[in-house]
Amino acid sequence: SDHEGNRYCYFGGGRITRVTLSDLAKKFHYNEAYLSSLIKKTFNISFSTILKNIKMIHAKAFLINTDMNLDEISIAIGYNSVDHFIRTFTRLNGITPGKYRKHYSKI
Fold first, then answer.
1. Could you give the CA distance from residue 82 to residue 33 in angstroms, rounded to a whole number?
2. Tell me, what DSSP letter sits at residue 20?
3. Which residues make beta-bridge pairs with 66?
4. C-alpha distances out from residue 86 to 6, 41, 74, 96, 97, Å
5. pLDDT tens track for 2-42
6. How far apart are CA 55 and CA 26, in angstroms?
7. Would you call 96 helix, strand, or coil by DSSP?
């Protein structure tokens, strides 16, 4: 849904920066299609899959370590829709975000 898989939210130094494949291609002076194929060849997964995995790592950290609600988490990691975030999280982790939080929460 509107390229959500191609955006990345970078968490560093207390700020969130959105990075796209296009941004990376420009930064490193590569053609976007070439960079995409280079990533796929090097890591054996697509750029969008890498981004989804990174988003899920951050989502899990937010679920475990904060009391942020699912709307706040979905926005923080770059999803435009909380429903899409919940579906993606559940599909990739085999458990809903709410159940994940109940099981692993440290707060």
1. 30
2. E
3. none
4. 18, 30, 8, 7, 7
5. 344 455 555 555 555 678 899 999 999 999 999 999 999 99
6. 22
7. coil
